[in-house]
Structures are given as C-alpha cells and as structure tokens.
Amino acid sequence: IKCNHCVLCFICEDSELDDLSTNSQAAAGIIKYNMRKHVDLDQEGCYLKTGREDCLEECGFNTTAKTIFIIHGWTMSGMFESWMQKLVNAVMQRESDANVVVVDWISRAQQLYPDAVNHTHGVGLDIAAMLNWLQDEHQLPLENVHLIGYSLGAHVAGYAGTYVRGTVGRITGLDPAGPMFEGVEKEKRLSPDDADFVDVLHTYTREALGVSIGIQQPIGDIDIYPNGGDVQPGCGLSDVLAMTGNFMEVMKCEHERAVHLFVDSLMNKKHMSYAFQCTDPSRFKKGICLSCRKNRCNKIGYNATKMRKRRNTKMYLKTRADTPFAGYHYQMKMHVFNRKDSNSADPIFNIKLYGEHKDTADIHDNGIGLNLTNTFLVFTEQDIGDLLKIRLSWEGESDSWSSMWKNIRNKFWNNKPSNPILEVRRIRVKAGETQKKYAFCAQDPSRTEISPGEHITFVKCPDGWDVKPRKRYETCGGKIRRGGGGGGGVSESLNDMLYAVILFFLINRVPM
Ligand SMILES: *[C@@H]1O[C@H](CO)[C@@H](O)[C@H](O)[C@H]1NC(C)=O
Ligand SMILES: *[C@@H]1O[C@H](CO)[C@@H](O)[C@H](O)[C@H]1NC(C)=O
Ligand SMILES: *[C@@H]1O[C@H](CO)[C@@H](O)[C@H](O)[C@H]1NC(C)=O
Ligand SMILES: *[C@@H]1O[C@H](CO)[C@@H](O)[C@H](O)[C@H]1NC(C)=O
C-alpha cells in the first residue's frame, strides 16, 4: 500500500520505502507507530502519526493510561522477528488498558550494521517528537511512558529519552547492542540519564574477536546479568539445533534470551526471578552475594523497581533454560576442619538437598579449602519446599594433577596410608528467594568426620542453637566447579565465531 494522504489510520503508510537517504528528515516518514488493537501481529494495527489528531482518536489512544513503546533492533530479514509477537502478547495481557505501540523502523534497521547504528539517532528523535506532541496536545504524562528496546532498539530508546522534553518514566534495555556502543560517551548510547528508571538485561556479553553482540558495560540504573551475562542455559549449539533445526536461531539464542526473560516476567507473576547485587560474576558464583539488605536484590523484568540513587548496579542470577526461567538460589557455608593434618586431601564434595516437596540430585563441588569457611552457590530448578536435610558426601580424591602429585609425594616420602579425615560440623544455608537463614548440624553429633567415600547427614540444628556467625577470621575459599550446565565448550565458541565473522563483514561493509 502506498499513499500520501491518509484517510484511514488503519491502512495507510505515507512513505517511500525506496528512499534510503540517511537524512533524518526523510527518515521521519518511514518510522511507523503501530498501535496494537489485536494481539495478532498479522492483523494490521492502527498507525499513530505525529500531528494527526484523527489517528489518535481512531486508534483509541487513551492518554491517561500507560503508554508502552516496543522498539526492535537491527534486522537481516526485514521482518519482525518472532519474539515481537510474544512480547506484544505478554504486554497486552499484563496491561490491558495500556497503549501498546510497536515502533517500526524496519527499513532503517535492515541495512549494514553501521548504517543501522547511524539511524538510531534519527529514530530516537522521531519518537521524541511524537512524545512531545502527545504532551503538548494531550497532556500525556511522561512518567506513564515506558520504552522497551531490544538490541539497537535500546539505544534508540536512549536517544528518545535524551531528546524528549522532560523525562520518560522508564526505559528497559533488552540486551542492548554492543558493537559501536561499548565504551562510547553516554550521550551516544543508552544511559541512566535517559529515563527516571533505566533497567537493562545483559544476556550475550561474551566476546569473540574483540566484540560482543550485547554491550558488556553497565549502562542503566540497574544492570542485570542473568547467568553471568554470557553462557545462557539451553543456548548451546546442539540444544538449539535440536529444538529448531535452524542455524540462525543458534546465533540469536543468547541475545534474544533477554526478551524471553522479560516476557517471562510479564507472564509468570507467581514466581518472579530475583537478581542480587554483586561486584563481579565470580563472586556471585561463589554464593557470596545473596543478600536483599539495603536494596541489594531486585525482581528482574517488568516488576523491577527503581532503587534510590543507584546507578550501574550490577546484579546477577541463575536461570533455568526455558520458561518459567526462575529457579532457587541457596548460599551454603561450611567450615572444613583439617585437624588430622590431612594436607594431601583435595576433596570433591557432593551436596544433596532434601526438601519438603522434592530432593535434588547430587550437586558437585570441588576446590574445597581446608581450615577455611567455604562458601558456594547451589541453584535448584525446582521448588524443593522447606529445606529439611542436607547430605554431604565425599566422592573420593579428585583426579587433578595436583592431588595426584600430592598422593605420589606422600606415598613416596612416608609410607603411612593416606586416608584423609576432614571434619564438617555444620552448614549454614541462606535461601536467596526467601532470605531465610538456617543452620544445619550433624544429625549424629558424634559423626562429623568424613573420609573419601563417606557421607555426613545434616538436619536443622536444635532450637536455641546460636545462629549468629562467629567472628570472621576466614576467607571465602575455593574455586567452585559447577556440576552440569554450561553446555559444550566447543559448540559455544563455534557459535561465537560465526556471529563474530558475520559482524566483521557487516561492520567492514563487505557485501556478503
Ligand atoms: C483509560 O485508562 C484509564 C487508566 O488505565 C482507565 O481508567 C480508563 O478506563 C481508560 N479509558 C478508556 C476509555 O478506556
Ligand atoms: C552517519 O550519517 C552521517 C550523515 O547523516 C554521515 O556523515 C556519517 O558518516 C554516518 N556515519 C556512519 C558511521 O556511517
Ligand atoms: C508488579 O508491578 C505491578 C505494578 O507495575 C504491581 O501492581 C504488582 O503488584 C507487582 N507484582 C508483584 C508480584 O510485585
Ligand atoms: C588446620 O588446623 C589444625 C588445627 O586446628 C592444624 O593442626 C592443621 O595443621 C591445619 N591445617 C592446615 C592445612 O592449615
């Protein structure tokens, strides 16, 4: 359909799609504001146009309701990707009164990546002009405006927030694009200044050949890095190929995960995912950061809340591989005594949790520090209910080179049989989701020693047992190797390489 004078806001587009000049004036007509009336994207929406009162009315724009703009990113196909339908659905279901507007800048986004990047500025300006008009003519309260941008769309939202008169309520950046934005001044990318509350989900920050698809640096008020922001469960090459049989999906999986996590937060109100503030992902993996004190935790996605005077706050969580993405985090702390001088011990402990509803499988942890309080993170996909019992078992000596060497050395120098004995008297547990703290004591107080092949069972300490931690003289020791998860290293890096090569071509304007 091509027409210059719109009669019906439902059908008309007054643009010349073949006009690809980079001038932002010309860009203005190409950007379409598709206000959704039907959930189904195949059903034409109704188009809003800056300055056109009749369209507002015809589209049933409600100026007192929330207004949610959804902004897509760079596209190779020139079509909305399938996530768009899911996000529109979820937003419309959650906020049935809201004005849900899809900002369609496809023709500008379907270009070489650097050109698409160049257009983010103009598209942002155009959105700002639309919002200014709505403010002037209809007293639209900007605090009711929420811009949701994926990939390049997040930076478009940033520009819109910069140029609008006043401050929009919220911008959500869903894995904001990294190439050409990483490390640039905050005026040229999404930043906390662009809205009253800027929340960002980072899901594909792994670097290959010097770039990452999603921006690595924190750029919002809160910046949430699910699964460390890099390896997303269920996104391994074999996982995705098995699910979709489509190679492009493999490359998009981790980037797009941000959208699916956001959709999940709109749909699954019962069990929200929480993220926890932490200075870096390795500390989070050790379970050190599961606190909600002083706003150190937040819900992720739609129900994230603004925290006073916080900027660029990095937050972490682990997720399941599919919806519902939320799981359960536990911090475990145990002091491992080495009284019998078993210095050759290099234990691999397995931990099994027994809950009111379910038990977990053995969860693997090695790199236990001796005479230290070891802290680690246990993540369960299912709600095991109230934690009743913990079983700690020692699998046997790890077959690491260092422990083999220690064994050989021990056998060589002193012939005494090495059967290391360690002692664990209690395990302190903190549940991230409930913030409940427990202390578990050995079920049989006389059995707190453990050797390879043995186990100790812990139950809740008897009432009156002092839960207060003793003075800390220990450090949080031990590297933790996670059992399972992670996916195949080879396929992950293959996936990254492919994406990097494609990016390289796009950035360097080499026709593919
Ligand atoms: C407009 O939105 C407000 C707030 O959500 C709601 O109370 C009102 O009923 C809506 N008006 C119409 C005509 O839908
Ligand atoms: C962006 O567009 C402007 C013209 O509007 C041009 O001067 C500039 O070189 C472009 N930048 C890139 C990276 O293509
Ligand atoms: C989520 O946020 C909405 C407001 O946006 C609020 O009404 C609702 O109660 C929140 N839900 C939860 C579970 O916090
Ligand atoms: C651990 O502490 C005990 C005393 O409690 C001591 O005998 C032992 O040598 C220490 N072991 C290590 C590895 O520091």
UniProtKB/TrEMBL annotation:
GO cellular component terms listed in the entry, alphabetical order: extracellular space
GO MF term list: heparin binding; lipoprotein lipase activity; metal ion binding
Residues annotated for Ca(2+) binding in this entry: R189, D194
EC number per UniProt: 3.1.1.3
CDD domains to which the protein is assigned, alphabetical: Pancreat_lipase_like
Annotated catalytic residues: S151 (nucleophile), D175 (charge relay system), H255 (charge relay system)
Cited InterPro entries: AB_hydrolase_fold, Lipase, Lipase_LIPH, Lipase_N, Lipo_Lipase, PLAT/LH2_dom, PLAT/LH2_dom_sf, TAG_lipase
Localization: Secreted
Top-rank taxon, per record: Eukaryota
Biological-process GO terms, alphabetical: lipid catabolic process
Alphabetical UniProt keywords: Calcium, Disulfide bond, Glycoprotein, Heparin-binding, Hydrolase, Lipid degradation, Lipid metabolism, Metal-binding, Secreted, Signal
Assigned protein family: Belongs to the AB hydrolase superfamily. Lipase family.
Protein name listed in UniProt: triacylglycerol lipase
